[in-house]
Design goal:
The complex is a heterotrimer. Chain B is of the alpha+beta class. Chain B has ten helices and 20 strands. The chains are: A mainly alpha, B alpha+beta, C mainly alpha. At the B-C interface, loops of B face loops of C.
Chain lengths: ~300, ~375, ~280
């Protein structure tokens, strides 16, 4: 047969006109892998190895030490308050921005992006200026014995400030892309506002919402700069996990510090895996749908 | 349910989508809103549905003022241009949606819902797809599911936004006939939006031709095609040749070439005469008052032949398009370069200013775009300025 | 704020009200507190504070390290995005997920880890220092931390643009006789330039404000390796609220300017993508 001959005879260069020379591809791929290894994989390995430097026993005892446990508890409390608040905010903000036309929309969008470019230290600083002893409400708070700074409320406020864009940022582009047709269809079929939201809107955004919440949670549990300003570093009382890592580190208790850090690294890795699974799931859904519609 | 649209106006920023539009649709009709994109037809449909609020005017359904009532309360069924099927629900759940969101007291039991949904799926001939998701359907199937979903709540009015816009030519043709038959069966007052004049003529019992936010003409397909009231309607529903001249005592005078004019044309300088390609008759024998023309190009278009003719006048060569049936063409037996004599039948005569305004939208008229080489410098100048 | 076109979709008023109240309580009022406090100090106070050698040095360190790191990230980011989008690679999904690690890893963890790697007795530091190339406790260390923190910004802005590039454009260029390098410089590069600049600006803005990952590796020697966020922190710890407020306000102004530039760049990216 002549067909295989023809295929074999065709020079490789014309088969793939849009490809760089082999050596360029290998060099670029090698360089990329080097960057990934140096800046991403090496740090992850370091956490583990340094954490285990003094053995498993030391590792676990660092984790069950009372101050570590109370730091874990405080971190969970802060996230448990900040994440739901920011989730509600994210949905509300995305709803207004993606579903309605109004004046001032761009200003609103810019405000939502603010924490991405404002230093976390400034996020902490502003709350000190409001609630601190020298601040606007400081004296009043002191008189009424309400503690915001150097207490859980301050930690929550600073965390909320730093993490509020994440849910909204995930939802806005998706909802803009989806348009309001399906919601209008639901209304025209007699659905009430809440029926429309729970039966049509929410199912359509659930993966993005879940991802936004995951990211928001990772940042809430890991926030350092803003929390550092408002915490006061009272051990066992206002120390979150990242602050605890710092304290241990500054006390030259490196192994314990890295042991606690490994918990946070685990959180980060879990978040990344979760993200990949969500993306993969969405792609899989789409591929199955396309394959079946072709048949 | 009858529909009355009274003095509806709608602006989007500086853009006037609808300018004081009034319209009455009796119960049971199947009406097409026809016009180029941006003419306001979709806005009108959405305002009737209650998906959009008008700036001024009233919407009456069955004689009741529903201008400010919610889309939920209007008892309409809306079929969206891109179907708007709920992508996370099966076909069955999509169709059942409207029944399941009813208040508990009015909601049918799941058993009744199931029967009803399958009845509807049978009606649209897709009951075998009940468990599929919208992503797994073809365009035509989605369209029919969207229709079934809209019908499930037993609407009094069916509103369809470009129902066949996103479909292949073949599917579109089939679905048009199917929609027509469905309407004959259900007799539900229906309005659909389209920019395709063929579709409007084939499916609807009445056509509302719109342009730039106003209604140009309302009538049966025959009326709007045979008796277009404005230059725009002439142009939008089929191809036209445009001639310039004046009317005088029942005659249209085009540079000394005299054509009988309809009585209502009156007495006017500066008119434009619109003649459809199939209203140009050709003969081989010279007759008085019939100008000669040269065949420049012959184009076989299936059931008809299309001829491009040069009509020399005042030293300029201008081209017109003529359509003749197969049989006529065989009788004529002409080829490129031959001379024929032309007679204009049934010219539509408009004042010149009106006609000039049309050229602005000419590129939107679907078919006339094929033939408008002279538009840029002002139509075909056969007229003599005296 | 009012809707410019009334929609029948419900929830505009409550959702907008909630959004605005939330933003006001959390962001606008606190930031205006900073503004008002800083306005309470006279111009001379501002001037004296901001021109003190330590503050000037901190700004110099912050700006120069952030700029350098962002520039390096443009190269790294483009490289990673290019390879991830265009070349076959085993475990691509894993590598792609890893790109987001700096987003997800708490900054304090990044800080101590990088220090452990680049310190004098660290994994890499033990080899680099004898070569006369100390990293930890120098501005170089700050730059390394900021490269780590900023890398995803460039990759994630360039990647989608690269993905959506129409291959027909490149094919057309090749068919017209362009070499591969010309295709890159004349077709691909102009298309991804807005995204590259956006990524640069995002990485730069993040770098200036970064605290957690920097303070461990910086060494924090005043005049040499002290960054602005740390200086604010130090002032606060010394109860120097005037100093903290004024420096904070200066940083906030800088952030807003960058935010403005980023918005313009993003609009440009979108226009470019829409024009394709």
């Amino acid at each position: 047969m002549s067909t295989p001959m023809l295929t074999a005879a065709r020079p490789a260069a014309t088969a793939r006109p849009q490809q760089e020379a082999d050596w360029v591809r290998y060099a670029l791929t090698g360089a990329a892998l080097f960057v990934i290894a140096l800046f991403l994989i090496l740090p992850l390995l370091t956490v583990l190895v340094e954490g285990l430097r003094k053995g498993w026993d030391a590792y676990f005892s660092a984790l069950v030490e009372p101050n570590t446990l109370s730091a874990i508890k405080l971190t969970l409390i802060v996230a448990a308050i900040a994440v739901p608040l920011n989730t509600v905010f994210g949905v509300a903000a995305a709803w207004t921005i993606a579903r309605f036309e109004f004046t001032g929309k761009n200003i609103l969008l810019t405000l939502i992006d603010l924490p991405f470019s404002v230093s976390p230290v400034i996020a902490g600083l502003v709350y000190v200026l409001i609630f601190g002893a020298q601040g606007w409400f400081g004296p009043w708070l002191m008189e009424h014995d309400v503690k915001i700074l150097f207490a859980v409320p301050g930690l929550v406020l600073a965390t909320v400030f730093v993490t509020f864009p994440f849910v909204a940022r995930e939802l806005i582009p998706l909802m803009q892309e989806q348009g309001r047709d399906e919601e209008e269809a639901a209304l025209s079929l007699g659905a009430s506002g809440w029926q429309m939201f729970f039966k049509v809107t929410l199912p359509n955004i659930k993966w993005a919402l879940l991802y936004g919440v995951t990211l928001c949670n990772a940042r809430a549990m890991g926030e350092f700069g803003a929390v550092s300003v408002v915490s006061g570093h009272i051990r066992g009382l206002t120390n979150t996990l990242p602050l605890h890592v710092e304290i241990l580190y500054n006390e030259y208790n490196f192994a314990a510090s890295f042991a606690v850090a490994s918990l946070l690294a685990l959180l980060a890795v879990t978040t990344l895996i979760f993200k990949s699974v969500l993306e993969w799931k969405q792609q899989q859904d789409r591929r199955v749908a396309i394959e079946e519609s072709v048949q | 349910m009858s529909i009355q649209v009274e003095n509806i106006s709608k602006k989007f920023g500086d853009f006037t989508a609808l300018n004081n539009v009034s319209l009455e649709i009796p119960e049971g009709e199947l009406v097409a809103l026809l016009g180029p994109s941006g003419c306001g037809k979709t806005s009108l449909l959405r305002i009737i549905a209650g998906l959009e609020q008008a700036d001024a005017g009233r919407i009456l359904l069955n004689g009741e003022d529903q201008t400010s009532s919610h889309v939920r309360e209007r008892e309409i069924g809306f079929v969206f241009q891109h179907y708007a099927l709920f992508r996370h629900m099966t076909v069955f759940d999509n169709v059942a949606f409207g029944l399941r969101v009813k208040k508990r007291a009015e909601r049918p039991t799941e058993k009744v819902i199931k029967e009803k949904v399958f009845d509807l799926l049978k009606l649209v001939q897709l009951d075998w797809l009940a468990d599929r998701f919208p992503d797994q359907l073809s365009g035509g199937q989605r369209q029919r599911i969207a229709l079934a979903r809209a019908l499930a709540v037993e609407p009094k009015v069916l509103l369809l936004d470009e129902p066949f816009g996103a479909l292949d030519a073949n599917v579109r043709k089939e679905l048009r006939r199917w929609l027509r038959r469905l309407h004959d069966e259900l007799h539900i007052t229906s309005i659909f939006v389209t920019h395709d004049q063929e579709e409007a003529m084939e499916v609807s019992s009445r056509i509302v031709v719109m342009n730039k936010g106003v209604i140009e003409q309302i009538g049966t397909p025959e009326q709007v095609y045979e008796h277009p009231q404005t230059p725009f309607v002439s142009r939008f529903l089929g191809d036209v040749n445009i001639f310039h001249g004046r009317v005088d005592q029942g005659w249209l005078d085009l540079d000394g070439w005299r054509v009988p004019a309809p009585a209502e044309a009156g007495q006017r300088e500066q008119v434009a005469a619109y003649v459809r390609p199939h209203d140009v008759e050709l003969t081989l024998e010279a007759e008085p008052h019939l100008p000669p023309a040269t065949v420049r190009h012959i184009h076989h278009a299936g059931s008809v032949y299309k001829l491009e003719l040069d009509v020399p006048a005042r030293g300029t060569d201008e081209t017109i398009e003529v359509e003749v049936s197969r049989r006529e063409f065989q009788a004529l037996n002409v080829s490129t370069g031959d001379t024929v004599y032309i007679r204009l039948v049934n010219p539509r005569i408009y004042p010149r200013e009106d006609a000039a305004a049309v050229t602005v939208v000419s590129e939107i008229g679907t078919k006339s775009a094929q033939f408008n080489p002279q538009i840029a410098n002002g139509e075909i100048h056969l007229a003599q300025k005296t | 704020m009012a809707q410019t076109n009334r929609s029948l979709i419900p929830g505009f008023r409550p959702a907008l009200t909630f959004t605005i109240v939330y933003l006001s309580l959390l962001v606008l009022i606190p930031l205006s507190a900073l503004l008002l406090k800083s306005l309470g100090y006279g111009p001379s106070q501002w001037f004296t504070l901001l021109t003190s050698p330590r503050v000037l040095a901190a700004f110099r360190v912050s700006l120069s390290t952030s700029l350098l790191a962002a520039a390096i990230n443009v190269v790294f980011g483009l490289l990673l995005a290019w390879v991830l989008v265009r070349y076959p690679l085993p475990f691509k999904r894993v590598f792609d997920a890893l790109i987001d690690l700096p987003f997800a890893l708490p900054t304090a963890v990044a800080g101590i880890v990088l220090t452990a790697i680049y310190a004098r007795n660290g994994w890499l530091g033990q080899y680099l220092e004898p070569l006369g190339f100390p990293v930890a406790f120098t501005p170089t260390g700050i730059t390394v931390a900021l490269i780590f923190i900023g890398m995803p910004f460039v990759v994630r802005t360039v990647q989608p643009v690269l993905q959506d590039l129409d291959p027909a454009e490149e094919e057309a260029a090749s068919s017209l006789g362009a070499s591969r390098l010309q295709v890159f410089t004349k077709i691909i590069f102009p298309n991804i330039l807005p995204a590259l600049l956006t990524g640069f600006a995002l990485a730069f803005a993040r770098g200036i404000g970064e605290y957690g990952s920097v303070i461990f590796i910086a060494g924090n020697r005043p005049l040499v390796s002290e960054v602005v966020p740390l200086l604010i922190m130090t002032k606060l710890e010394q109860y120097d609220y005037v100093g903290a407020t004024v420096i904070g306000m200066a940083m906030l102004i800088l952030s807003f300017a960058l935010l403005l530039i980023i918005n313009v760049l993003q609009a440009w990216t979108r226009r470019r993508a829409g024009a394709l």
